[in-house]
Amino acid sequence: MHRIVARDEATSLDRTRHQNATISSSPPSPLRGTTERSEVCGGQKKGFSIHVKDTLKKCRIPPDRLEALASDRESWRDTCKQGLSTFRDNHTADAENRRARTHATSVSSSGPTCHICNRVCASDFGLRIHLRNHAHQTSCTATSS
After folding, report:
1. Assign residue 99 a region: left if phi > 0, alpha if psi is -120 to 50, beta otherwise?
2. What beta strand segments (E) does the chain contain?
3. What is this structure's pTM?
4. Which residues contact 95 (CB under 8 A, 6 or more apart)?
5. 20 to 30 A Cα–Cα from 139, which one of 6, 91, 99, 123?
6. How far is residue 21's CA from residue 15's CA, in Å, rounded to a whole number?
7. What is the C-alpha to C-alpha distance for residues 87 and 85, in angstroms, rounded to an integer?
8. Are 46 and 39 in contact (CB under 8 A)?
9. What CA–CA distance (Å, rounded) separates 96 from 28?
10. For the chain, how far is it from start to end, CA to CA, in angstroms?
11. Cα–Cα distances in angstroms (integers) from residue 99 to residues 45, 106, 134, in the given order
């Protein structure tokens, strides 16, 4: 019984040592003294303050001058309007570029081509089906005449 209790205590001590080492190794956040890590592929998500700074940068609002800009209500309102319109324009342009890239890659000229109508098929099987449809269409027009 004493061995089981000693083993459980050792396991919990190792766990707390590992947690303390993990917390102390992360860099401190500049805002509110919290510890946050940047987003790594498959890792933790970005912290709130990092997300806010990135959003401000996308709106072309300097995060280091945030308090000075917010102290004057009129200038803050104008800055926000300009920043949001810039953000919206950039977001729309990026979305259009993504759509154009997607459509450009999906419409490729590689693949088997029909010798009758020059249609590009996705596979050899698709070309065979397409040619069968051509044969069916010509046989239907020949019998109807």
Report:
1. alpha
2. none
3. 0.42
4. none
5. 123
6. 10
7. 5
8. yes
9. 38
10. 98
11. 26, 11, 33
